[in-house]
Design brief:
globular; six-stranded antiparallel sheet; Thiol Ester Dehydrase, Chain A; alpha+beta; 6 strands; 31% strand; 176 residues
């Protein structure tokens, strides 16, 4: 991620509980606004593909700060790692155009947490992504049951299994 100043600004708001950083529930969707700057564009004069994932990184980390998970799993010596990301691009983000990025947890299995991100222009989806992440602790990979215990969640899983099953099938197809 090379959007360090945007990350710092977003995290500052999350840690201080500013308007865009108020605490949220574990499954709440968070939304952050950005503007496509000249440093974000490619030769086609629109937001370069790699920036979509970078903005999603910012929203995901800020979401974990706001829902309280970040401090708990970091205190337990855990680090998040991305396993895969599937993204569908629908429309271009033009220079200086405002856009929003959302992040929310949609479920988990024994190994992975699954999250959904959207990049929105005036409320319309410009890109949507589903990703899976794992957590590494001092002794290696942490199963999700142990992770959920660390972050203090004991409720039911949300029901987003069809999209999760499709991501798992795609991951299986891409194994080399």
């Amino acid at each position: 991620m090379n959007l360090i100043f945007r990350l710092a600004w977003t995290l500052l708001g999350a840690w201080l509980g500013l308007r865009w950083g108020k605490p949220v529930g574990f499954f709440d969707e968070v939304k952050y606004s950005f503007r496509c700057l000249p440093t974000d564009i490619d030769f086609n004069m629109h937001l370069t593909n790699s920036r979509y994932a970078s903005f999603m990184d910012i929203a995901r980390v800020a979401m974990m700060v706001r829902n309280g998970a970040w401090g708990k799993f970091r205190a337990a010596g855990m680090l998040p790692v991305l396993g895969s990301l599937a993204m569908k691009f629908r429309r271009a983000v033009k220079p200086f155009q405002e856009f929003e990025v959302t992040a929310r947890t949609i479920g988990w299995d024994e190994k992975w947490m699954y999250l959904e991100h959207k990049l929105l222009i005036n409320g319309d989806v410009a890109a949507i992504a589903v990703m899976k992440a794992a957590f590494l602790g001092p002794k290696g990979r942490v199963n999700t049951a142990d992770f959920m215990a660390v972050v203090g969640y004991s409720g039911p899983k949300p029901d987003h299994m069809p999209v999760i099953e499709r991501l798992v099938a795609l991951d299986d197809a891409l194994r080399g």
